[in-house]
Specification:
Layout: E1 2-8, E2 28-33, E3 38-43, E4 49-56, H1 70-77, H2 89-95, E5 100-105, E6 110-117, H3 121-133, H4 139-158, H5 168-174, H6 178-181, H7 188-193, H8 196-206, E7 212-218, H9 222-233, E8 256-262, E9 269-276, H10 284-295, H11 301-309, E10 317-320, E11 334-341, H12 348-365, H13 369-387, H14 390-404, H15 409-418, H16 422-432, E12 438-445
Parallel strand pairs: 3-7, 8-12
Antiparallel strand pairs: 1-2, 2-3, 4-6, 4-7, 5-6, 9-11, 9-12, 10-11
Helix pairs in contact: 1-4, 3-9, 10-16, 11-12, 12-16, 13-15
Length: about 450
């Protein structure tokens, strides 16, 4: 049976402007099944569609040692069908009505999202419960998806300029614990060693109701959704989820540097990262705001200094937990990342020194109050624009509930950003954005001579 835990919030128009005293909120209804599954429903009659997200509490940080990329590989296996719904069934149900579906793997979770007209919600819930219950564990499917993941690595990492060194290589340099430092895409060798028995054990350990959150947003009735979820998920037995390892890390105490060459690049690039604390830190949200101050596109302080004023870099992009998410999609230490190509004839060291000088000034003087208010307003506006889409709203709710134990964080996030003060940004920057906590990589074209 389902026990109803919480009904909170007020259904307001998401198009209403945010103010300093009142931010738009939406209704959240939360239930818990006896097998441990959590259901979150956010009803909104704005359009006759729904967004659905199923989030499992397993990501890169929890995959087996010696099997880098396993969580991502398993995400692909979830689309290979089941004994009762063969491969392609899910796609036909969702896309046949004009909807879409997807999945992704992050450090702390794996999510499966879909959106379609509301008439498809019940069959989609049945399909999600079906693949939580069992999968088509065949060697053929495993080998097929190994090949797909390898091709992703070739396309996104090995055969494109810069690959993803600003994520994978920078994390390996900055972090000390394997859970935070290893390559979540995985190596070909580790992928080749993955067996069908390991895939089965992974499903039995982590893809269980007491390690999952189902969230639905859209033109739905919470009680009807509850009945469907109880019917389709309620008899799936809970699992024995392994306790997570201790992946906490404090800031570094000395600058870290690495030089690389890139056979596909024609212009040198650099990636700089400062190790950030987890969400239990009081500096977490001030640092999230600091990241936008520094890296808000052309308005960011780093772009203004290095691209517009000094003209030493071609672009500076990045952010908090970039490129894998943001402050609401993280349960542990992460990086504030700045990446960009720099002009030949300039040095990476000079560019990094200029970046650090801008940050040091933020840490000593604090942000300009007017600029800070503009940044916070933009962060809230961007957030409301994102969750206006039901699929994004459902995913935010499911992730917040799974990682933080409270889907209501999605409603409170704008207030938390609004409350950040110049003094908090200055203090957080002084603690975490110093040179001693900096790791950076200079990646140069493999051909041609560059200045040291």
């Amino acid at each position: 049976m389902i026990r109803r835990l919480l009904l909170a919030g007020l259904l307001l128009s998401l198009s209403a402007p945010a103010t300093a005293t009142r931010n738009p909120e939406f209704q959240i209804v939360r239930y818990r099944l006896d097998n441990g599954l959590t259901l979150v429903v956010a009803p909104d009659p704005g359009s006759p569609t729904f967004g659905l997200s199923v989030v499992y509490g397993v990501g890169f940080r929890l995959e087996p040692k010696g099997r880098t990329g396993f969580a991502h590989l398993f995400e692909h296996m979830m689309f290979e069908g089941t004994p009762t719904a063969p491969k392609g069934t899910f796609d036909r149900v969702v896309e046949g009505g004009g909807g879409m579906l997807n999945g992704s793997t992050r450090y702390d979770y794996t999510n499966y999202v879909s959106t379609a007209p509301v008439a498809a919600l019940e069959p989609v819930l049945w399909l999600e419960a079906d693949r939580m219950r069992h999968l088509d564990f065949s060697p053929e499917n495993l080998e097929n998806q190994k090949a797909v993941v390898k091709e992703e690595i070739r396309v996104n990492v090995k055969n494109r300029p810069y690959g993803l060194f600003f994520w994978t290589d920078l994390a390996a340099l900055a972090f000390d614990k394997w859970e935070n430092a290893h390559d979540g895409y995985g190596s070909f060798e580790d992928l080749d060693r993955a067996t069908i028995e390991e895939v089965k054990r992974f499903h039995a350990r982590y893809y269980v109701p007491n390690n999952a959150v189902v969230a639905v947003a859209g033109d739905v009735d919470p009680e009807r959704v509850r009945r469907w979820v109880e019917e389709y998920f309620g008899d799936i037995p809970p699992g024995r989820v392994p306790p997570p390892p201790d992946f906490s890390e404090g800031p570094n105490h000395g600058e870290r540097f690495e030089r690389q060459t890139d056979p596909h690049a024609t212009v040198p690039a650099l990636a700089a990262g400062w190790k950030m604390p987890g969400p239990d830190s009081p500096h977490y949200f001030p640092l999230a705001v600091a990241a936008v101050l520094l890296l808000d596109g052309e308005a960011g302080l780093l772009h203004q200094k290095l691209v517009k004023e000094e003209k030493s870099m071609l672009e500076v992009i990045g952010g908090f937990n970039w490129p894998l998410g943001d402050a609401l999609t993280n349960a542990g230490p992460s990086l504030l990342v700045a990446f960009g190509r720099y002009k030949p004839g300039k040095t990476a060291r000079d560019n990094v020194d200029m970046m650090q000088a801008v940050i040091d000034r933020l840490a000593t003087e604090g942000p300009d109050p007017k600029r800070l208010e503009a940044v916070k307003t933009k962060m809230k506006a961007d957030f409301y624009k994102t969750i206006a889409r039901f699929i994004e709203r459902a995913d935010r709710l499911a992730v917040a509930e799974r990682l933080w134990g409270d889907a209501g964080w999605v409603n409170r996030y704008p207030q938390r950003i609004e409350a950040v003060t110049p003094a908090q940004v200055r203090a957080a920057a002084a603690l975490y954005l110093g040179r001693e906590n900096l790791s950076w990589i200079d990646r140069r074209p493999a051909h041609g001579v560059e200045k040291p």
